[in-house]
Protein: NADPH-dependent diflavin oxidoreductase 1 (Trinotate prediction)
Amino acid sequence: SDQIYAKILKSTLIFPHRDIPCIMIATGTGCASFHAYIQSIMGNSSNPSHLVFLGFRNKEKDFLFKKDWEDFEKSKNIKMFTAFSRDQHQKIYVQDRITENGSLIWEYISKGAWIYLSGNAKRMPDDVYESIKNIVKLFGKLTEKIATKFMSDLEKLNRYQTETY
Structure:
């Protein structure tokens, strides 16, 4: 008989009090933590609105929890943006959707939103970080140096958290 060794690791993400808006960004299986969090808050109309950015290769092949995400999006509390990188000739990634919605992201950050990133640890985390830093710089009218400090402060305050693998 074959044996499989596995290890279950606890999530490192710390979610804020439920009255604080979140910006959740995930690729692939990284969406599982956000799926669980949103399931836990659904049905409470006093929750703030959250932004969810999801990236998958193909909408029909690997859009994890597709039906649930579609149901979540029907609530007034969830604004969802998807990127399917292999469904068209020109690849579209979550950082592209983030950049397209820069004004909205800045509005949420200005209101104290916490930002979460989960998924692939290759280029995506750096690309997303740079996209958000550019939004902070543009909409906050900050210099590069001050925008970099702003992002660093978000991390120190746990308002920018990553769980990548």
